Amino acid sequence: MGKVLVHAITEHVEDAGVHSGDATLILPTQTISQGALEKVKTATQKIAKAFEISGPFNTQFLVKGNDVMVIECNLRASRSFPFVSKTIGVDFIDVATRVMVGESLDESRLPSLENPIIPVNYVGIKAPMFSWPRLREADPVLRCEMASTGEVACFGPNIYSAFLKAMLSTGFKLPQKGILIGIQHSFRPNFMSTAHQLHEEGFKLFATEGTSAWLNANDVQTIPVAWPSHETKNTTLPSISRLLSEGHIDLVVNLPNNNTKFLKDNFQIRRMAVDYGVPLITNFQLFAEAIRYSSDLDATSLFHYRQREPRLSESSAAWLTCNL
């Protein structure tokens, strides 16, 4: 009792604060240090032993550098079980069932803490799907409350291929015309390299007034647009609603926080993107790299990626213990 028999560790693309059910998951992990991974394994082992767990459980960790903290431990199977089962080729649900009914197992073939199964030639990604267009006035931004209504799992030779296919499988469309950018001050330093890349890729960039001034000052040419609440007052700047309705913008990148006087305007921008059927990004990790990767693929390649990609129904980070 309390011995970890099979395990898998996934990494969230999004920063802490996004519900694990809404998170984009990566297997194998990409940015977590080996030292932190070992601490995750040690903590998992201690939790299983301390609570004498016999059955499936999943644990969420917060990792920064080599610092590891436990967020929560759930004594149940999670959305990660089908995802990790498909990705590493071990049926976690089958093992869990055998554990709970007391059947013996050949432990030598299972991914234990000491002998994990880590994909080498491919990466698996689980991406959430949402139903924002069906929910009037709902704010399409990810928080600690779960909002997704489904997910897909995709695989590729590298993280960018897998991420791009996952985005396409959830209905995301690659931008062809213009991108609207709105970045709050706290996110700007981390977004600068992404902004330069989008500019170098040749996209026509629009930006809210403050973001546009900041980007232009940093050699990223953008066209300023008026905040929704300023449209009637500032008629010299293009209207976001008009640009969206006329198809001049086919992607909206809106990175908000609560420390702004434009909370309502940011909500209106996100909501307009959803209502006009324009893809919306509220978390930019991996996005720019995936766009760069897509520039090396032709439309036929992307079409075949979507056609042959397997889909799964559920996923998160999973461990399993059994009686001894």
Low-confidence stretches: 298-324
| Class of secondary structure makeup | alpha/beta
* Strand composition percent: 15-25%
Span between termini = 5 Å
Keywords for this entry:
324 residues, alpha/beta, 4-stranded antiparallel beta sheet, disordered C terminus
Overview of this protein structure:
The protein is α/β, with parallel strands linked by helices. Helix content is 32%, strand content 21%. It has ten helices and 13 strands. The chain has a five-stranded parallel beta sheet. The chain has a four-stranded antiparallel beta sheet with strand order 1-13-4-5. Strands 2-3-6-7 form a four-stranded antiparallel beta sheet. Strand 4 and strand 5 (67-74) form a beta hairpin. Helix 4 crosses helix 9 (287-294). Residues 298-324 have low confidence and may be disordered.
SSE topology:
Layout lengths: L2 E6 L2 E2 L12 E3 L6 H17 L4 E10 L2 E8 L5 H9 L3 H9 L22 E7 L20 E7 L2 H11 L8 E6 L4 H13 L3 E5 H9 L5 E3 L14 H6 L5 E5 L7 H13 L4 E2 L5 H8 L4 H10 L9 E5 L2
Helix pairs in contact: 4-9
Concise structural overview:
The chain is of the alpha/beta class and 324 residues long.
